[in-house]
Amino acid sequence: MLFNERIMGAIISTLLVASLPALSQANVAETAKQCDTCHGTNGVSKNGKVPTIAGFSAATITEILPQYQSGARAAEKYTPKGGKASDMKEVTKDMSAADMQAIADHYAEQKFVAASQTVDAALAAKGKKIHNKNCEKCHSEGASLADDDAGILAGQWKPYLERQFALIAEGKREIPKKMKKKLKKLSAEDIKAVTEYYASQK
Question: DSSP string of 19-84?
Answer without folding.
Answer: TSPPPPHHHHHHHHHHHHHHH-GGG---STTS---TT--HHHHHHHHHHHHHTSS----B--TTS-
